[in-house]
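Memo to structure team: turn this sequence into structure tokens by end of day. - J.P.
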Amino acid sequence: MRRAISTASRRLSTMLDKTQRMNSLLDWYESLLTANQKAIADMHFREDFSLSEIAEQTGSSRSAVYDTIQRVQKIMEDTEAKLHCVAKYDARTRLYQTLRDLKIDAVDEILDQLIENE
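Reply from structure team:
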């Protein structure tokens, strides 16, 4: 029983990580998608609609929605593999936090300017 709970917990964590990653990728690259792809990705990743709910909303089949989601994921992952915008942003954010943790007023002022210009 304990193993089943642990496995289910890991699966949920993996699903949440994947959704969070796709939301980050969408924040950066959704302008590369068609209007239909954007709408389906938004419903699936941001609003947590099921395939059936999206199919009903869009007048498509579940398999068409599934195919669109797979295509969106490939576009986003391929684009990130080439540009690394999300990875670089995450790295900068961690560095900014490390500098902010130093609690030096002059550094904080510069960080504020850097973040404002992101």
